[in-house]
Automatic annotation (TrEMBL):
Keywords: Hydrolase. SMART domains: HDc. Pfam families: HD_5. It comes from Pseudodesulfovibrio mercurii. GO terms for molecular function: hydrolase activity. This is Metal dependent phosphohydrolase. It comes from the Bacteria. Residues 137-331 form the HD-GYP domain.
Length: 331
């Protein structure tokens, strides 16, 4: 048990619940167990279990404990809490007490869920919800670009389109901040994050049996996959997206420096920096993800594969990718 609410032992075991965070909980049924620190005895005890009903008197008492800085949740319950807070991302910009890795996990959960909603129903409403969360992430990174190092620790191996989109965004964002030395404009950051997230949007139009095929793709299947570029661009045009950074991510992430890519078979000089960056991030994320036709490769092998393919991938960017992954291992 803790000896003092400001002690290191308490903060390692518990996460303080501020009045703002408490206000984001359902009033009658908190999503996690709530604990109260008693300064008179220097101990923390459970006040109510998650999901149990709070009376109105109980709500008032819990609110008072939060105001006094005595209300906590177990860090072991963090996953449940993270799912809840992923729908209230704005709190991450104003609340203290979160460990950087916890914040990174909350952002991953939030953006994965937003992308899944958008991919399932790409409408103006779901796009606006995605934009809102992207703006919060951009603000968080703009305040301190070094925070991106923690975000790259949240990459997931399980492959689905939403997870792949977020993995690609996190790697692409880390590469961009390396490329610029951490100097960024918030509006550019928002556009790049959205472009990296939406780069494979057109894949929702490719039949799942083709996407998940375990054997070699025949020409007809490959043509179907290549058409996902134009399909995605058509979808964002209907949503009135005209941002050139977003469009370059979507249009050029399968172009290769030697002209072997698609859809336009562009060569070196015809591929934008954004397109090159998205190509590296997309390919890396695909390699480290579990797929029906092969198991995930480890990050070191993925870096070696891309760095060794200088004819197709920008070697300045693959060198930066190696740095990002090396720091991820040692952090």
């Amino acid at each position: 048990m803790a000896e003092h609410p400001d002690s290191g032992a308490l903060s390692e075991t518990y996460l303080q619940i501020s009045p703002n965070i408490l206000a984001s909980f359902p009033k009658f049924r908190p999503p996690v167990d709530l604990y109260v620190f008693d300064p008179s005895v220097g101990r923390t005890g459970r006040y109510i279990r998650g999901g149990e009903r709070l009376s109105r008197d109980g709500q008032a008492e819990v609110a008072r404990y939060a105001e006094e800085g005595l209300l906590y949740l177990l860090r072991d319950d963090y996953r449940i809490y993270a799912e809840h807070l992923s729908r209230k991302l704005g709190l991450l910009l104003v609340e203290e007490g979160f460990q950087p890795q916890e914040v990174a996990e909350i952002f991953f959960i939030a953006l994965r869920n937003r992308m899944a909603e958008f991919l399932n129903q790409p409408t103006e409403d779901t796009l606006e919800a995605l934009r809102t969360d992207v703006a919060i992430l951009a603000e968080y990174i703009w305040i301190d670009p070094g925070r991106v190092a923690f975000l790259t620790h949240t990459l997931e191996r399980d492959y689905d389109l939403a997870v792949h989109s977020v993995n690609t965004m996190l790697i692409g964002l880390a590469l961009y901040l390396r490329l610029t030395g951490g100097k960024v404009e918030k509006t550019v950051l928002i556009s790049l994050i959205l472009g990296l997230l939406l780069h494979d949007l057109g894949m929702v139009m490719v039949p799942k049996f083709i996407r998940d095929k375990e054997r070699y793709l025949v020409r007809r299947d490959r043509e179907s996959i290549e058409r996902h570029i134009e399909a995605g661009l058509n979808m964002v045009r209907r949503l009135k997206i005209q941002d050139p950074i977003i469009l370059e991510c979507m249009d050029q992430h399968h172009e290769r420096l030697d002209g072997s890519g698609y859809p336009a078979r562009r060569f070196d000089g015809g591929i934008s920096t954004t397109g090159r960056l998205c190509a590296v991030a997309d390919s890396f994320s695909a390699i480290v993800g579990d797929r029906p036709h092969r198991s995930a490769r480890d990050t070191a092998e993925a870096v070696r594969m891309l760095a060794g393919d200088g004819k197709r991938y920008d070697q300045a960017l693959t060198a930066l990718l190696a740095q990002v992954m090396a720091e991820r291992v040692t952090a």
